[in-house]
Design brief:
The complex is a heterotrimer of chains A (780), B (160) and C (323). In chain A, helix 11 (371-389) packs across helix 12. Chain A is globular, with a radius of gyration of 27 Å. Chain A is built from 20 helices and 30 strands. Chain A is α+β, with helices and mostly antiparallel strands and 780 residues long. Chain A folds into 3 domains: 15-22 and 473-622, Aldehyde Oxidoreductase, domain 4 (2-Layer Sandwich); 31-138 and 196-290, Aldehyde oxidase/xanthine dehydrogenase, a/b hammerhead (Aldehyde Oxidoreductase, domain 3); 297-472 and 625-776, 2-Layer Sandwich (Aldehyde Oxidoreductase, domain 4). Chain B has 2 domains: 5-80, Beta-grasp domain (Ubiquitin-like (UB roll)), CATH 3.10.20.30; 90-157, Orthogonal Bundle (DNA polymerase, domain 1). Chain B contains 5 helices and 5 strands; from the N terminus they run ββαβββαααα. Chain B has helices at 26-33, 90-97, 107-120, 126-133, 144-157; strands at 5-11, 14-20, 52-55, 58-61, 74-76. Chain B has a 5-stranded mixed beta sheet, sandwiched between helices. Chain B is globular. In chain C, the strands form 4 sheets. A 5-stranded antiparallel beta sheet of chain C has the order 4-5-10-6-7. A 4-stranded antiparallel beta sheet of chain C has the order 11-12-13-14, with helices on both faces. In chain C, strands 1-3-2 form a 3-stranded parallel beta sheet, covered by helices on one side. The termini of chain C are far apart. Classes of the chains: A alpha+beta (780), B alpha+beta (160), C alpha+beta (323). At the A-B interface, helix 1 and helix 18 of A face helix 2, helix 3, helix 4 and helix 5 of B.
């Protein structure tokens, strides 16, 4: 498909505002009379609240209100279940959602206990110290396996144990596969993730306008429409009375998709009562406790293979830490369960997981959303199998890739969108070939590595494959309009977190209407502009909202052609769109500007004919029947300092297939950013918990994000296997960069230090020089 | 005195007179007293660099300075980089052209850091650029396009 | 789990109330997480005498504000809540960097780290200063941070205290009562704890000259560039005319509750040619001389292992530079 805009590296529409400091983020909102809130949080992982005395806080000069659970009255109730449990037979799910303020009991460090509202944040924080809370600490549990012990402290006393959910899924007959296997590989893995740590913390401003009878909320959310609907219901307002604006958001990565955080419920409630705007901005220290994490899983997995290294089946049993509450359902472990199957033709699969409550911050999806864990398990199993079978690690993967003729490929088990896991399209061998060529795989093994070893240097190579389920429904919508000025507007309900929606969607619309992408003004995240939609998460923005924008633009294009054909009294086939005009093909002087057409379509005199609408506008929705599966390969060469166990990354290659590419510049940025977070997860980021549930490293000084010296220059390439599921053929790309990096580091470091020759394997993430030293000593 | 203190702070060439509490951080003063919200706050413990401004020319963390300490001093923030409304500086334009930002939250701190860096290092290598960036955290870009933007800006500033 | 605050008592230290540590790093989350400073009274004296008079008047209730790069984060997190802040940034005469003809160096406590790092005279007389300063945080921090502030903060993971030990520095402490000079080794008493009395200010650091044929090196292993070291070693060696080691000083950071000197390791090198075997032996001795406390990033065993590795590398480099 010849395109003028789609697929071009168009620079971004949103950049001038961001570069000049004129872009509005939530903390930039300042309203007359605005008050500032601070949250009193539990210092205990598990405790009874015996009493709470806020009198001194209320009496402090500058304090306007102190809110406790009692003050909320009927408003106090657990937040909604955001993702219901999947329709899987025999499943157990116990819903326990977070509450606006703790009442009688706290279940994790940082759980909100009271809200102070004052003239300034400084005073509000002073007042926090005035509140006297009498806690009776209870035994707390943080370790996954300890939480399952029979005498473990129960996070929810009304439950018999700490199991939040149990799900079994199966495909084919694993027992039979196992019985005829020539080879079994069994391993235990531990994969921990950490906190998303966007550079902007969360925040919310709520303002009630009594004259307009409306509530306006600015929120760092990835789901403004859902927040609007939920807040209206909670506060007893009609949806039209509530406007939620997600302005520029300083990074989301998933935890800003978690909804109805306590502060999101409290701040609008108190703003209504005080009839003054109230702002709450999360500080960085709070962020470590108050915003969701994605954390650990423990897997016991077994791979059954034939003598040629073809996979006959996989069995996996895992535990997943869900934290103190589970409003986000089972998205993360379902993703782990499904993504373990990766890009391989696996005829039999048995998987069982238990999600486990712990006295820690809630878990909800964070870039990759559980896929990392599944990929780590299968890729490590294959590495072990390759060794034990004497096969090259790439060869064993190649032998198991789903061949291109087998799509749509049905994995049968239920995915996070509640549809059977089906890969829409894929062609995996070329991705692997490109990656191997780019990294110089064969030359590395044959020449570079042996030469380095002879010099006493420890170089290693890693190659791992992954799939990424993207572009799931339920739907998104878009409204496209040509204005009398000739500018085109696009409104959609999806939010944005920096991934270029203002530009990529503009390109999609520009393609249809023959304007420049710069002349398409995109509004996202304002429920007054568009109030149907779900949110930006799960690598679905470009696919789903992009498709809706495409359909809406196509519909407007049809109206433009019809109106122009009437205007010129010619056939629609004789018309061309370009440069913001419609003209007769071959007769460029017979042209009319789009804006002029729009004006003519919205007459002051004359009538709009029955069955038509005024203007040049259309609203369309797109709901894919299922998600689109992207895929890729990461390859890396690194050098280990054998004394300090610090790695240096020498080369890093990503070959990626996300179908049709809307904007290669934006896509590259998404991959770079994903890999950086993957490197953080693999090697730098670890939430270090003390026995009592406190975090030992709740600051950016000790929770280590990769810097420009820690992330290598990456070489990117891609293949294009379009998705048949949407008109543009796109697949999502937001998370792929982050997904395989843990497995890649484990493989490359094992290779560099030749650990398996000493019977040592790396079966855990995150790593660090200290941890590698311990592992290399044999203290694994 | 924990009462308010009168200060006069020059920001991007304009002198502002206010009375502030000693504990008011310079970052909050710029953002909320002066309404210059281009400088962002990411951590308030001096690590992330989002709040970086130039104090008498030197890039520093505004979250680690009290506003009272800026009395009589000259500060440059991101709002002062563009040559005119509707236009971008060479550095800003290079960031747009190289896609050196995504969410844009860390960007002002990076621009202020790099504007000083390029004055002292007009022809940096990639390694030197990464060192210069290592004191500012970005969670979106993976840094590669930021490095490209800085190298592009350097070339253009040298007339390339 | 709060950050350790133990202060091993020393006989000569003036009587003082235990100072509540304001270490931000690696303390468990605070009882009430907050990130705005508590109120304080602020003074910006315009002379050393005025600053010292104020400190005498307020004692432990007042803290000096130098660069603020350690104190202000702690105040933002309310781990430190001084009632009075004495801002030294308007006091003239505290930031001089003066090299004397004999190669000795005097550094005023308020000298900014960045300025010291780039000072031509200091780079000639004591190149290890620049080498170590380059590892301290990032340029934005060094533009404000001062050497005196860094040393007074006395974080055991800080690079510069170890460098001061290796350079056999002497510190000038001033108060309204007068002044006294201390060897650097007597200044650092424990984590975040120094010999400064309630009315005293660290005013100047005095570095003796390095003899001819001296070589120095500072190396560290950190998780990321600019982070506090998991292990850092400052090594200074002096060779005689025959190329044998006439003097050696080695000090480590992140190796114990204070910067840790390694005199036995250093002594083992005297008279030798600093060959691989001697260096390895010194590294082995040093591993026993350090007492690492461990951190979120490194176990004590790993730190001890690193101490040997880094010491060997630093000694090799120092020797090469001495030739």
């Amino acid at each position: 498909m010849e395109t003028r805009h789609i697929g071009r590296p168009v620079t971004r529409n949103e950049d001038p505002r961001l570069l000049t400091g004129r872009a509005l983020f939530v903390d930039d909102v300042s309203l007359p009379g605005m008050l500032h809130a601070a949250v009193l949080r539990s210092p205990h992982a598990h405790a009874e609240i015996r009493s709470l005395d806020a009198a001194a806080a209320r009496a402090r000069a500058g304090v306007v209100a102190v809110v406790t659970a009692e003050d909320l009255g009927e408003f106090w109730k657990p937040g909604p279940l955001l993702v219901p449990p999947p329709p899987i037979a025999g499943m157990t799910f116990r819903q326990r959602c977070q509450v606006p303020l703790a009442r009688g009991i706290v279940r994790h460090v940082g759980e909100p206990v009271a809200l102070v509202v004052a003239e300034s944040r400084y005073i509000a924080e002073d007042a926090l110290a005035d509140i006297a809370v009498d806690y009776a600490p209870l035994p707390a549990v943080g370790d996954l396996e300890a939480a399952l012990a029979p005498d473990a402290p129960r996070v929810h006393a009304d439950l018999p144990d700490n199991i939040a959910a149990e799900v079994r899924q199966a495909k084919g007959d694993y027992a039979a596969a196992r019985a005829r296997a020539a080879h079994l590989v069994r391993r235990r893995f531990r994969y921990d993730r950490g906190a998303s740590i966007p550079m902007e913390t969360r925040g919310i401003v709520a303002a009630w306008d009594a004259k307009a009878d409306r509530l306006t909320v600015w929120d760092t959310t990835q789901a403004p429409v859902v927040i609007r609907n939920g807040l209206a219901a909670m506060l007893g307002l009609s949806e039209g009375q509530v406007r939620v604006i997600a302005p520029f958001i300083g990074g989301g990565f998933g935890p800003k998709m978690m909804m109805f955080y306590p502060e999101e419920m409290l701040v609008p409630w108190i703003a209504l009562r005080l009839a003054r705007p109230v702002k709450w901005i999360e500080d960085r220290l709070e962020h470590f406790f108050a915003t969701t994490h994605e954390r650990g899983q423990i897997h016991e997995a077994e791979l059954a293979l034939d003598a040629e290294g073809r996979i006959l089946g996989v069995r996996d049993e895992f535990l997943m830490d869900t934290g103190a509450y589970d409003p986000y359902g089972l998205t993360v472990p379902l993703n782990s369960q499904c993504t373990l199957l990766n890009c391989y033709d696996i005829p039999a699969y048995e998987s069982r997981f238990r999600a486990v409550f712990t006295n820690r911050t809630l878990v909800s999806p964070y870039r990759g959303a559980g896929r990392q864990h599944g990929i780590f398990v299968i890729e490590r199993l294959l590495d072990a199998a390759a060794r034990e079978l004497g096969l090259d690690r790439v060869e064993i993967r190649r032998r198991n890739l789903i061949p291109p003729g087998r799509f749509p490929y049905r994995n049968e088990i239920i995915f996070q969108d509640f549809a059977p896991l089906t890969y829409d399209s894929g062609n995996y061998a070329p991705i692997l070939d490109k990656a191997l060529a780019a990294i110089g795989y064969h030359r590395f093994l044959a020449e570079e590595q042996p030469r380095a070893r002879a010099e006493g240097r420890h170089l290693g190579i890693g190659v791992v494959c992954y799939v990424e389920g993207t572009g799931i429904g339920p739907y998104e919508g878009a409204k496209v309009r040509v204005q009398a000025s000739g500018k085109v507007t696009l409104a959609t309900g999806i939010g944005t977190q920096g991934q270029g929606h203002y530009t990529a969607f503009a390109q999609v619309v520009a393609e249809q209407l023959g304007v420049e992408a710069r002349d398409v003004e995109v509004t996202t995240g304002d429920t007054d502009q568009f109030d149907w939609g779900v949110g930006t998460f799960a690598s679905r923005g470009a696919v789903v909202a992009g498709a809706a924008a495409h359909e809406a633009a196509k519909a407007v294009r049809a109206k433009v052609l019809k109106a122009a054909a009437e205007h010129f009294e010619c056939a629609e086939e004789d018309l061309v769109l370009g440069n913001g005009k419609v003209s007769i093909a071959g007769v460029p002087e017979r042209a009319i500007a789009l804006g002029e057409l729009a004006r003519l379509a919205n007459p002051l005199r004359g009538a709009v004919k029955p069955g038509t609408e005024p203007g040049l506008e259309a609203t369309r929705y797109f709901g894919p029947e299922m998600g689109a599966t992207a895929a890729g390969v990461h390859a890396m060469v690194l050098e280990m300092d054998a004394e300090t166990l610090r790695p240096s990354i020498l080369r890093y290659v990503v070959v990626h297939d996300c179908g049709t590419v809307l904007n290669p510049l934006i896509l590259a940025g998404q991959i770079h950013g994903g890999v950086a977070q993957g490197i953080g997860n693999a090697f730098f980021e670890r939430l270090a918990w003390a026995e009592d549930g406190q975090l030992l490293n709740a600051s950016l000084a000790d929770y280590l994000l990769p810097t420009a010296l820690d992330v290598p220059r990456m070489e990117l390439d891609h293949t294009v296997t379009p998705s048949p599921l949407n008109p543009l053929g796109t697949k999502g790309a937001g998370e792929g960069g982050a997904i395989p990096v843990g497995a890649l580091f484990a493989q490359a470091i094992e290779d560099a230090l030749d650990l398996p020759a000493r019977g040592i394997e790396i079966t855990e993430i995150p790593l660090s020089p200290c941890r590698l030293w311990e592992i290399a000593q044999g203290h694994g | 005195m924990s009462g308010r203190v009168a200060i006069a702070v020059t920001v991007n060439g304009t002198t502002h007179r206010r009375e502030v509490e000693p504990r008011l951080l310079l970052s909050d003063f710029l953002r909320h007293e002066l309404g210059l919200t281009g400088t962002h706050v990411g951590c308030e413990h001096g690590v992330c660099g989002a709040c970086t401004i130039r104090l008498d020319g030197a890039p520093v963390r505004s979250c680690l300075i009290f506003a009272v300490q800026a009395d009589g001093r000259a500060i440059a923030t991101v709002e002062g980089l563009a040559p005119a409304p509707g236009r971008l500086s060479v550095l800003q334009q290079a960031f747009q052209d190289a896609h050196g930002l995504q969410c844009g939250y860390c960007t002002p701190g990076i621009l202020m850091t790099i504007s000083a860096f390029l004055e002292d290092n007009p022809e940096p290598t990639e390694e030197e650029v990464r060192h210069a960036l290592s004191g500012t955290l970005c969670r979106c870009t993976g840094y590669q396009h930021i490095v490209d933007a800085v190298l592009l800006a350097a070339r253009r500033l040298q007339g390339g | 789990m709060r950050a350790a605050a133990a202060a091993p008592p020393r006989a000569e230290a003036p009587r003082r109330a235990p100072r509540r540590p304001h270490r931000l790093r690696q303390s468990a989350a605070h009882e009430e997480p907050r990130v705005k400073p508590a109120p304080f009274a602020w003074h910006a004296p315009d002379s050393v005498e005025a600053a010292l008079a104020l400190k005498a008047a307020h004692g432990e209730e007042a803290r000096f504000l130098a660069g603020g790069q350690s104190l202000v984060p702690a105040m933002n997190f309310r781990v430190a809540q001084p009632a009075v802040l004495l801002d030294l940034n308007r006091v003239p005469g505290l930031d001089a960097i003066e090299a004397a003809a004999d190669g000795s160096l005097r550094i005023g406590a308020m000298a900014r780290a960045a300025r010291l790092e780039h000072d031509a005279a200091a780079r000639r007389s004591h190149p290890i200063l620049a080498e170590a300063l380059h590892e301290v945080a990032h340029p934005q921090i060094r533009n404000r941070g001062t050497l005196g502030g860094n040393l007074s903060h006395a974080d055991p993971a800080s690079e510069m205290p170890a460098v001061m030990l290796a350079l056999d520095a002497r510190f000038l402490l001033r108060s309204a009562r007068g002044q006294r000079e201390l060897p650097a080794a007597d200044f650092f008493l424990g984590p975040l704890t120094t010999a400064l009395g309630p009315d005293e200010m660290l005013a100047e650091m005095r570095l003796p000259p390095l003899p001819p044929r001296s070589g120095s090196a500072f190396l560290e292993v950190a998780r990321r560039r600019g982070d506090y070291a998991m292990m850092g070693v400052a090594a200074v060696v002096t060779l005689d005319a025959e190329g044998r080691c006439a003097a050696a000083r080695i000090a480590c950071c992140s190796a114990g509750p204070t910067p840790m000197a390694a005199p036995r390791a250093a002594a083992s090198l005297l008279g030798t040619r600093l060959g691989e075997a001697e260096i390895a032996a010194a590294a082995a001795l040093l591993r026993e001389e350090v007492d690492p406390m461990g951190s979120v990033h490194a176990s004590p065993d790993y730190q001890r292992h690193l101490a040997g590795v880094v010491a060997a590398r630093a000694l090799r480099l120092a020797k090469a530079r001495a030739a």
